[in-house]
Amino acid sequence: MMKNQKKWYKKLVITALTLSIGLSAGVISAPHAAEAAVATSATSRANQAISIGKQYLGRPYQFGAQAGQTRTFDCSSFTQYVFKKIGVRLPRTSQQQSHVGSYVSRSSLRAGDLVFFSIPGKPGIVHHVGIYIGNGNMINTYGAGGVRITNINSGSWSSRYMTARRVL
Q1: Rounded to two decimals, what is the model's pTM?
Q2: pLDDT by residue (tens digit) across 2-30?
Q3: Complete domains list, the chain, with CATH
Q4: Rounded Cα gap, residues 11 and 43, in angstroms
């Protein structure tokens, strides 16, 4: 009878170990699947934001434009409006928006990230925001021409770049 108990105990231990190892592997690999799902969701939402933003290409710029309306935009009312359409609430000004979400280095920019700039004559102070759309470009609004796509590495944009934030 003792032999049967030993065999049964051995099978139980082997089964328990196998089950434990199998479950551990599933738990260890699950975060990667979750991260992939989050990244896919963020990419989808970024594409939505960019698509919404592009609907307003050419829309006139007006400093201090009233939030929530679409006749005119300033840079931060534009980003606030676009992100609100995909369920992300942003504060009203570019300076306030520059503190939302998480920091992103310039070399790690992804579509949908908010990019922030100083303006000529006021270095070191955030005064402009755009939505990074990839390939060195952002959609933003300023001056004559209103909402447009601008290369962040061209002209004075490159030297006035300050930071970026990921809110998706």
Answers
A1: 0.78
A2: 566 566 556 655 654 454 444 444 444 44
A3: 44-166 (3.90.1720.10)
A4: 48
